[in-house]
Amino acid sequence: MTRKVYVVGVGMTNFEKPGRREWDYPDMVREAGTQALEDAGVDYKAIEQVFCGYVYGDSTSGQRAAYELGLTGVPIYNVNNNCSTGSTALFMARQLIAGGILDCALALGFEKMQRGSLKTDGQDDRANPLGRHFETMAAQRGFAKAPPAPQIFGNAGLEHMERYGTTVEHFAKIAHKNHLHSTKNPRSQFQDEYSLEAILESRPVHHPLTMLQCCPTSDGAAAAVLMSEEKVRELGLEDQAIEIAAMSMTTDTPASFGKSAIDLVGFQMSKLAAAQVFEASGLSIEDVDVIELHDCFSTNELITYEALGLCEEGQAGGLIDAGDVTYGGKWVVNPSGGLISKGHPLGATGLAQCAELTWQLRGQADQRQVEGAEIALQHNLGLGGAAVVTLYRRN
Predict the structure, then answer these.
(1) I need a surface site. Which of 31, 95, 279, 375 has the fewest CB within 10 A?
(2) Tally of domains within the chain
(3) What does the alpha-carbon distance between residue 253 and residue 263 come to, in Å, rounded to a whole number?
(4) pTM
(5) Does residue 188 fall inside a structural domain?
(6) Distance CA 138, CA 37 (A)
(7) CATH, residue 104
(8) How far is CA 125 from CA 131, 133, 148, in A?
(9) Is residue 173 part of a domain?
C-alpha cells in the first residue's frame, strides 16, 4: 500500500541573469532551503534524506549545498536528469515516503549557469548523451547553424505548422501571455510586458522562434519539504499541506527516434506520463485549475497542451485564440511566467514549479492567484530524456 505524500514547505530564490550578483550555488540553496524549512515549521534535523538536483556541477555539489542547512549525517543524493532534474529529485523523495521508507524528506534544486546558449561540458572522448537526438534531428531536417536547443524545439513547431496550419502568431501569443503573467511575479527574471509585435520582431533564433520566445539561462534555487500523512498529522500541518495526488516519470520510447520532430522533443513521453497520473488519481484534465508547464520554448508549450490533453492533437492554436490558457479561460497555464519569463536554472525549475503550485493551492500567490484553485498540474521535461508530470490537490 502506498502512503499519501504532502508538500508542507516550499521556498525559492529570485531567478536572475547569470552573474548579476555575487553568489554561488551554496548561497542559493541556503536561501531557498531555509525558506522551505521555515515554511514547513521544522528544523533541518527533522529531514531524513536530501535529494539535490543540478546539471552543471561536480560530484557531491549536493552535499556542499545542503551542508549550508546543517550537518546531520543523513543520506544526500546528487540528481541529474537534464531540465527535468528538479522534479526528478521531487519524484525520488516522494517515492521513498510513499513506500514507507521515509516520513520527512527535502528536495533541492539549484543551478549556477553561464550566459548565452547552453553548452556541453566539452568532453569529446565519449558519447554525447543527446547524440541520438541530434542524429535524428539531422536526419529529419538537417543540422542548421542555430544553437541545438532552439533548433530541435523550433523544428517541432515547424512540424506542427505544416501538419495543422498553426501560425507564428500562435507561438508568439504564448510568449506574450507568459511575459504578461511574469509582471506579477517578483521572483521572475523578466518582469516586463512585451507586445505581440515586439515578440515577433525580436531577434530570430530558429524559425519560428524569436529571442523573446526562448527561455533564458538563469541562476537560482528552489526547495520543497515532503512528509507522509502520518507526519503531517503528528505535527499538525494539515492546513498548509498540499497532497501529491499522483506523479509519473517516463523516458524515451522508440517514437522519439522516428520521423516526427514533435515526438523527438518528448511529446509521447509527456502524453504517457499525463495518462498515468490521471489514471492513478482518478482525476481528469477537466478537474485541473492551474498548470505549470515546461515552456522552454513557446513551441513546446503549444505541443504540450495536446500531450497533456487540454485539446485534441492539432487544435492547440484554437485553444490559444480562445483565451483558454490564461486568466478567465479554462486553465491558467504558467501563472509564474513560465520558463520563458521566470527563467530556467535547469536543476531548480521543477521545484520552482512545485513551489508556485503549492502557493496557488494555498491561496498565497498574491496578484497572480488563480481564484478557487484546488487541483494543479505540473509538467517538467528534460531532453535525453525524461518527462515528469505531477498532480497536486488541496488538502
Answers:
(1) 279
(2) 1
(3) 9
(4) 0.96
(5) no
(6) 46
(7) 3.40.47.10
(8) 13, 18, 20
(9) no
With a cut of 70, say whether residue 116 has pLDDT above it: no
User: pLDDT tens for residues 306-338?
Assistant: 999 999 999 999 999 999 999 999 999 999 999
Q: Which set of grid coordinates corresponds to residue 327?
A: 486568466
Q: Which residues are catalytic?
A: 83, 344
- Digit-coded pLDDT (tens) for 38-94: 999 999 999 999 999 999 999 999 999 999 999 999 999 999 999 999 999 999 999
**DSSP codes of every residue in 356-390:** HHHHHHHT--GGG--TT--EEEEEEEETTTEEEEE
Dig out the grid coordinates for 108 from the structure.
Answer: 533541492
Tracing cell 516519470 back to the chain, one arrives at 249
Share of residues in the chain with pLDDT > 70 (%): 98
**What per-residue string of b and e applies to 153-183 under the rule 16 or more CB within 10 Å gives b?**
bbbbbbbbbeeeebebebbbbbbbbbbbbbb
For residue 364, being part of any structural domain is answered with: yes
User: Which of 379, 383, 387 minimizes the C-alpha distance to 151?
Assistant: 383
For position 201, what pLDDT does the model report?
97
* CA dihedral of residues 221, 81, 128, 345 (deg, nearest 10): -20
CA distance 107 to 92: 9
- For residue 165, being part of any structural domain is answered with no
Cβ neighbours of 251 (radius 10 Å): 16
Kindly give the residue spans of alpha helices, DSSP state H, lying in 117-251. Answer: 131-141, 148-164, 168-182, 196-201, 229-235
Residue numbers of the domain that contains 40: 5-116+216-394
